[in-house]
Amino acid sequence: MLTTSVLVPLLFLSIAMGAAAAILAWRERPEPGATPLVWLLFGQSWWSMCLVFKLRASTLASKLFWTDLEWVGVVIVPVAWLLFALEYTGRDEYITRRRIALLAVVPVLTVVLAVTSQYHDLLFVRPQTLESTDIVRIEEGGLWYWVIAGYTYLLGAAGILLLLGLLRSKAVTFRSQAVALFVGLLIPWSTNALHIAGALPTSGIDPTPIAFSVSGVVYVGALTQFRLLGTSPAPRKRARQFVFDRMREGAIVVDANDNVVDMNDSCVGILDVDPRTTLGASAQAVIPEYDRLPDDGPLDGHLTVGTEAGSHPYDVMVTRIDNIRGNEIGRVITFHDVSRHLRQQQRLQVLNRTLRHNIRTETNIIHGYVDRFASDEDAQIVKKRALRIEELGRKGRKAIELFENGRAGANPRPLDALVAQCVRDVRERYPRATFSYDSSADDAAVAHFLAPVFSNLLENAAEHASDDPNVDVTARVEDETAVVVVADDGPGIGEYELQVLDAGSENALQHGSGLGLWIAKWGTEIAGGEIHFTENEPSGSVVTVRVPCLAEPADEDGE
Amino acid sequence: MSNESGSLSLRAENVQSSYRALFEVALSLFERAKDAFFYSSAYLVLVAIAEVVTVTYALSVELNAAPVVVGLVTFAVYMGDRIADVDTDELSNPDQCAFVRRHYRVLSVLSAASYGLAIALSMLGGPLALAITLLPGAFWILYASDWLPSVGAQFSRLKDVLVVNSAVVAAAWAVAVVFLPLAFADAAFTSTAAVVFAYFFVDTFVNTEIPNVGDRAADEAIGVSTLPVVFGVARTRQILHALNLALVPLLGFALLAGLVSTPVTVGILVGVAAVSVVVSFLGRTDNGRLLSVASEAKSLLVVGVVLLASTAGL
């Protein structure tokens, strides 16, 4: 049986911790949740204070006075808890003066009924008796007592539901905060529940305020150790909504019955619809060719959406939304405008055709005419330059093919075979050069479009080197990364050329001498790798290409 | 022989350097303790406790938890104030701000825990003691209130009004120091209590205006009316002298009327004399902070003299 000599020190502890935590929370204003937390701690401290004065009162009248005042703290706690949970989880849009007033109706009525309790039995079923333990026993259980008890537990459960998401948070800080909050709430409330059930030997005293001493310790710990109000999850919900609303891609959310339930601002523009009439409507009526869309994943080809402003092609991606049990509850459909991309692709095709056909034709004509008109040294120079123009055209085509192949996908090929093939091809074109190739990458596979990368590096080494250049090529695998090294004994790649490559673009003032090294750099980057240029000893360059190894090629002979 | 004397002198040098190192460590520890003592406002806790003990003796009530409660509240309020003003005090008091920033977390928790403990302890004195303990906190909330903007703004403006600003601080301090021991002892407010209240009110008022002399330019710039801002330093000195010395006839009357005992009268007169000396230096020294601390710390002198005089059987 609890006596006042045990109860009062515990209540003192509860008040001290509650007040200290309230001051710490007060200092954190205007952080989300700080103000409701101050009210919560004020409520529980008030409750404890009134209980102390009730226990220490010497007359029945004063004991009843403090019992009535206790209710102020009792009713503040659940309202403050719910407001805290709303604000802390970023749902502050629900906290309006009107809603707070509505939430306060039952608490205010309770306090009024407590103050006027001598005129009715709604809150307490009297009479009270002053017992030898100095504790006043009040036979609680009037009609309104159960109303406020139910109301308190309802708001408490609502607050817990709001905070449940934090328990699953990836951030340890938020999980720790959530655990602290639950402990701080559940201990006093379970104590209260046990008291209501008559399971605690407390001589009729509600021991909930004593359990607040634990809450106080937990809240102080959470404020100081887990930065309860210093690191707040409040912006997360708003940020996610913000990202959804403001993302450039159009996004529309449909439920499991294919009804539109949400859409962002971009999507409103893309589909040219009024969101007020669209939300709740059937997706078939809103999205063109809705039946073509897959259940999950990207749409094959493009979806053309026509509006008054014109029609645009879109890449469409459908993403399933599952509930916690893995059942589909809806889908998010995103629209990525590819009209600009398609225009660029068309331009590249035109450029490709021009480079492939027109330049070659024109240089052939130059060749023919020069042969007819002259055979001196000047004619040889013109022919050499014409060949160079044709070579530039060929490299341009290679670059365009590289981009197209990169877009088409990695298509893994054995590294060893790919490099060996490149060495063979370049060796044929540069018979004076001596190539050595050493590979220890038997099983490794890399993206097929890396072939022009290796070819261009080999050509660069053979072309710019001395009369009898030596080019050493090695291929190996290091930690799931394919490493290809091309070393030559030529004059080396100029510092200026490397600076241009490093800058990533050319302009009228700063430009390289050709496309070969660009192709090597672009191709490596498209494959997700990196390329490094160093000097060779005593002369020449060492180019190292590092690209991620891919899964085994599906077709070994598919070069 | 020469080897022996050489070894002895080497040993002496070693011992000397060890002592020097020890002394330097002790000096450094002392400096740090001194910083903590002043910057954390811990010295004000001693001042507050000394004042409540003086009141307890003067009012002949039993020694109770009031000095501890007032000490805890003093620490909490002053420390809280320094934490809240750490940005605005950066220019006027950089060393103190650096100390607060360095120990922000510990000081913040300590000040909150102090107030929490003070509230819990004050409940031993009943609802009135609790209300008096909550009073500084209530002022604090009103000062920074955004819950009650109109009340908070009006209250905040009080600190800009001549005399009212210092009078509010003096009244709040005197109420806490005089009424809390009474509330704990469940004693009535007597004529003796009124005299003691008047002393602490005037004393705190003077103590509040003393640092205003040093802050004159800054107060004037932000539109705060203090005695030095309105009347100048020389006239402020005269006003504070007058207020301080007005306590002498009050105490003489109280002694003759049997309201206060001889030890209390002697102690307070010593305090009045000490404040007079401090006020005389106002505007005549660059070390304004020392004057403020001396004026506040004279309460330790007062309680010492009261207890000594009492022991001596005066």
UniProtKB/TrEMBL annotation, chain A:
Q: Which PROSITE patterns match?
A: HIS_KIN
Q: What class of enzyme is it?
A: transferase
Q: Does the keyword Nucleotide-binding apply?
A: yes
Q: Where is the Histidine kinase domain?
A: 354-551
Catalytic activity reported: ATP + protein L-histidine = ADP + protein N-phospho-L-histidine
Query: In this record, what's one Pfam family?
Result: HisKA_7TM
* Transmembrane regions listed in the UniProt entry: 6-26, 69-88, 100-120, 143-167, 179-198, 210-230
Molecular function in Gene Ontology: ATP binding; protein histidine kinase activity
Annotated EC: 2.7.13.3
Q: Which UniProt keywords apply?
A: ATP-binding, Kinase, Membrane, Nucleotide-binding, Transferase, Transmembrane, Transmembrane helix
| Name of the featured protein | histidine kinase
Native species of this protein? Halogeometricum limi
UniProtKB/TrEMBL annotation, chain B:
**Which membrane topology describes this protein?**
Multi-pass membrane protein
Transmembrane stretches, by residue range? 36-59, 65-84, 130-149, 161-182, 188-206, 242-260, 266-283, 290-312
Q: Does the keyword Membrane apply?
A: yes
Keyword annotations for this protein, in alphabetical order, are:
Membrane, Transferase, Transmembrane, Transmembrane helix
Specify one Pfam family.
UbiA
**Listed GO molecular functions?**
transferase activity, transferring alkyl or aryl (other than methyl) groups
The source's superkingdom equals: Archaea
Q: Where in the cell is it found?
A: Cell membrane
Query: What cellular component terms from Gene Ontology apply here?
Result: plasma membrane
Name the UniProt record assigns to this protein: UbiA prenyltransferase family protein
* Native organism: Halogeometricum limi
